[in-house]
Amino acid sequence: MRILWISQNLPFPPKTGVLQRNYNLIREATRFADVDLVAILKKDILPDFDAAIAESELKKLCRSVQVVQLPTETSRLTFFWVLFKSLFTRAPFTSNWAESDELRAVIAKTLAGTQYDGVYFDTISLADYRKLANGTPIVLNHHNIESHLFERRIAYEGSALRRFYFNIEARKLLRFEAEVAGDFDTNFTCSELDATRLREICPSADTAVVANGVDVDYFRVANTKPERAHLIMVSGMNWFPNRDAVLYMVREIWPLLAAAIPEVKLTIVGASPPAEVTELAARDQRVVATGFVDDVRPYMDRAQVYLCPMRDGGGTRLKILDALSMAKPIVATTMALEGIHLTPERDVLVADTPQQFVAQVRRLVDDPALSARIAASARDFAEQNFSWPAIGRRMHDTFSRIGGGK
Questions:
Q1: Which of 73, 98, 109, 259 has a Cα-to-Cα distance from 375 of 20 to 30 A?
Q2: For position 163, which CATH number holds?
Q3: Are residues 185 and 294 in the same domain?
């Protein structure tokens, strides 16, 4: 097969959730197809991001790689002008953000030069380019159902001005999803839950679950024994749902944990920690905020319990899959586990209030047998359900279905 893959970012290295999904799906696609990649350059996606290295590594996988920089990514003035202008356009900001004459020309020229079996659009932000495919089967990937994501965010947003803007954007996104999803031959979603949400918005939409996955060989069980009562959170905190989760932890959960379990320690790993997190780490020696790290595994190895107190977001959390693969007992909110189909008390412990987080962590700290049982079940679940090769096979089957069975 031949696939034109249009990506919202240059997906290397696979060090954050969106980069992990994009890189690994491309890697799996190249097992059954020649892939031509058109990628948008976003420089701030990782600290010390090197576009030249990313492009070089992706050329090892793809038949060709073309990189385009959007006007909104070139100039902060342009970005904020488009953000403001989007208040008065029918299209949502997420679509206006991706508007680019250069990107349109590159896609059109690439399509004119090769007969493709499918065109993959990485995000709904790129949906306005769908008509350039001229009859070639087209796929729209949904990392989240964006309108649902915005509606959730409004509930936890403290700024009245931002809530006003997000309300407008959520309504526009809902209409946009309803209008465009049915135009695609299929829509990839991260879970059946997201597929159901999308079909409720657009009943004519064809959906296929191509889940988030985990590299079960990279994220393996360590030989080192974890430290008792050592807790860990891992997430890039420049994304609102992750930022909200870590602030919820330090403001509401940590004070109760610290009082109930005096020996408890907390490591917070990830880029852009809020000031409240770094200030807590400065005054409480039990708390460490590492900032961005190139390899999370040594930090995960030392921790006994993985925490995910997310209250906002969509899709499925790759950070949960990484922790499952490393056999970490997880305490997480119901929302954080959406779309993964874990069995509470067997694969994971659930907590939806600060008091419940304390109780569940205490159970794991005080009962090594429970901790070991959940850890073993977590690893088995990851291996059986979320390895990237298994997800790649499902992706192949879907491309074959819409592209004529190649």
A1: 259
A2: 3.40.50.2000
A3: no
What pLDDT, on a 0 to 100 scale, did the predictor assign at position 73? 93
- Please report, for residues 234, 325, 330, 332, 390, the alpha-carbon distance to residue 350 in angstroms, rounded to integers and kept in the order given: 17, 18, 8, 5, 27
Q: Name the pTM for this structure.
A: 0.80
Residue at 172: amino acid letter: K
pLDDT digits (tens, 9 = 90+) for 145-177: 999 888 887 877 778 888 898 899 999 999 999
> Are 315 and 347 members of one domain?
yes
256: containing domain:
230-385
Residue 387 CA: distances (Å) to CA of 33, 81, 323, 340, 355: 19, 42, 13, 13, 34
296 and 283 assigned to the same domain: yes
DSSP labels for 142-195?
Answer: ESS-HHHHHHHHHHH---HHHHHHHHHHHHHHHHHHHHHGGGSSEEEESSHHHH
255: left (phi over 0), alpha (psi -120 to 50) or beta: alpha
Beta strands in 55-108 (DSSP E): 64-68
* Total number of domains constituting the chain: 2
Mean pLDDT in runs of 10 for the chain (406 residues)? 96 87 95 97 82 95 97 94 94 95 97 95 97 95 91 80 90 96 96 93 96 89 89 89 92 96 96 94 96 92 95 74 94 90 94 97 96 95 88 93 70
CB 354 within 8 A of CB 252: yes
CB 105 within 8 A of CB 70: no
